[in-house]
Amino acid sequence: MRRITFLLIFGLAGLGVLVSLGVWQVQRLGWKQDVLAEINDRISAEPVSLPQQPSETRDKYLPVFVQGEMQPGEIHVLVSVKQVGAGYRVIQAFDTGDRTILVDRGFIPTTAKQVERHTGQIELTGNLHWPDEIDGYTPEPDLSANIWFARDVPALAAALGTDPVLLIARSQTDPNVTPLPVDTAGIPNDHLGYAITWFGLALVWAAMTGYFLWRGRAPSESEAQ
């Protein structure tokens, strides 16, 4: 009886922990969905003028409308697009008259690296962004081939002589450049998968607990005979 009691307490405690973890992930899923909905609303809002002092904490994803001159000179950031393949994001300096910022014009295939693109006066809409793409495994840019491996805003700004402000174009700036607007597709939301995993483990734990309880009772029943 003591062994049965121990198995029962241990099994219920473990089941409670696993179920509580699953419930927590369901709660996190609801929170993340609310966050993503808020970001989507912000991304698709009516564009405003470029703030005087853009701030990452205040202005991330802010939609803006700017007029100015696209400067010559490009930086190419290696990227892969689903169903298209490898190519580059085209980053250029954009002079608004008051300041010069970075503009991510969008995607070009690797074969279009040397194609001349439109510069000069342009009106465009887009979203301010400070991508978090740098980690300890990110290679240094290949400056001789003009290939970068992440959008490191301060480094890009230093290379092109602009303010460290990046505008991701959502309007087309050149017929040969496909805009890659900001969206929430790259923001991870794995909480549903985590919840299913914890609830699945809870089910297995309950089944194993029931099995061991049954096995624990078997010897005592045989001895009683």
UniProtKB/TrEMBL annotation:
One of its GO terms (cellular component) is plasma membrane. Its main location: membrane. It is found in: Cell membrane; Membrane. Signal peptide: none annotated. It is a multi-pass membrane protein. It comes from the Bacteria. Keywords: Cell membrane, Membrane, Transmembrane, Transmembrane helix. The chain crosses the membrane at residues 192-214. The keyword Transmembrane applies. Pfam families: SURF1. InterPro entries: Surf1/Shy1, Surf1/Surf4. Belongs to the SURF1 family. This is SURF1-like protein. It comes from Ruegeria faecimaris.
